[in-house]
Amino acid sequence: MGIRMWGERDVRRAGAAVLLAAAAGLIARMIIAANSPGPADVRIFRGFAEAITVYGPVRIYEHPLPGLPVYNHPPLAGWMLMGLDSLTGLGFSFSTLIRIPASAADFCCALLVFEIVRRRAAPRTAMLCGIGVAVSPVLIATSGYHGNTDAVAIAFALAAAHLLADRKAPLAAGVAAALSISVKFIPVVVIPALFVAALRGGRPVLVRFAAGFAGLGALVWGPALVTVPLDLERNVLEYAGGSYRLWGLVRFADVIGLPESVITFMQGGGHFLVVLVCVAAGIRLAWLRPAQLPGVVALTLGLLLLLSTASGLQYLTWAAAGMFVLGAAEGFTYSAVVGLVAVLGYSGRSAVRWSEPVLYLGAAGWLVLAAGLATGLRRVLAAAGPAHPSTETAPRAQLENAP
């Protein structure tokens, strides 16, 4: 009893430390947001918000937006932007408001990572991982300065895995999964893995998860799918990212001088092959280790970034929190290296024009990501037992019920 109580006290103290770090991290992000104009994306989001106020969050997909890039955000992002634009009428700064969702998501994600890790490691390790998310340089730079919605989507994806595997709340997990792809479509690669893990939990778990996912999905996506299906498909579902060659495989292909046709294919139709590879990997891992679903989601999102041809600095957040789910060493190493990439990249002339040192650091970050995914994969596969955590073996149940 004494050992157990001491363990519980350790968890409470570790959780309090993570909460303090997450609060400090949120304050730091909001100070940056309130005192910096941010990159060009902040102004682009302001243009999107003004257009959505005119056309609505559904019809926005069918209207050309002169002077703005293609509006490639899922429907829930449109409602968010319309709400933020209405707040500017009350005197709030849009450039600050647009960075609140990602900053708040980092706050929640620090606590979420702590909850995930403490079920699989010592409280001290969980505390380090939670604090790591809170103070991660790459997350502070992208959420506090850039302010895109990637961090929000990743937080919902990890929450879905945690709710399904650890909390035994499949209905809420389905809602969280639908929210993740309704903010940013990137987590679509983990949705099949979540369904496989739900299937491994039994029919009732699968039905509840599917009900939560379908119900929220119909509510958010339904109006656009019915009203402007082709425009939604073109702008959101088929969006392949930019054409910059700053990160990962496309950067290496450019450096070694591969033909333009190859690079064009990589950035065009080839990105669908990358998505299929990531989906297949997630499905396989979820089938083998459904109890390690948060790690599976982290690995799948990290693999997507590893193989992606997209080069935006905000995309580095896809793996930031997940690397801490895989391990403290992996998380801190990745956050330190790519955090330097983000800070230097945002400090340069343009976030999409990296200097030579930043390009080399980006290559180093890619290698760190690859190494972290390899060690994380070994750790997930080495975890005990393929059984789903929402199921309990008969012998254990019999022993607990025995006199």
In short:
This is Glycosyltransferase family 39 protein. The chain has 403 residues and is mainly alpha-helical.
Describe this structure as you would to a colleague:
The chain is mainly α and 403 residues long. It contains 20 helices and no strands. Helix 5 runs antiparallel to helix 6 (123-135), helix 5 (100-118) packs antiparallel against helix 7 and helix 6 (123-135) packs antiparallel against helix 17 (317-326). The radius of gyration is 21 Å and the shape is globular. Its EC number is 2.4.-.-.
Low-confidence stretches: 1-6, 388-403
Mean pLDDT: 91
Give the proportion of residues in helices: over 70%
Strand content bin = under 5%
Largest sheet: none
Per DSSP, the total helix count is 20
> How much is the radius of gyration in Å?
21 Å
- How far do the termini sit from each other? 20 Å
How would you classify the helix and strand content by structural class? mainly alpha
The ordered string of helix (H) and strand (E) elements is HHHHHHHHHHHHHHHHHHHH
Coarse shape: globular
Number of distinct beta strands: 0
What descriptive keywords fit this protein?
74% helix, globular, disordered N terminus, 403 residues, 20 helices, transmembrane helix, glycosyltransferase activity, glycosyltransferase, 0% strand, mainly alpha
List the helices and strands and how they pair.
Elements (H helix, E strand, L loop, with lengths): L1 H34 L4 H16 L19 H14 L5 H4 L2 H19 L4 H13 L1 H10 L3 H16 L4 H14 L7 H10 L2 H25 L1 H9 L10 H8 L4 H8 L2 H19 L4 H15 L9 H10 L1 H20 L8 H27 L11 H8 L2
Helix pairs in contact: 1-5, 1-6, 1-7, 2-3, 5-6, 5-7, 5-8, 5-17, 6-17, 6-18, 7-18, 8-9, 8-16, 8-17, 9-11, 10-11, 10-15, 15-16, 16-17, 16-19, 17-18, 18-19
Organism: Streptomyces castrisilvae
Enzyme class: transferase
Protein name: Glycosyltransferase family 39 protein
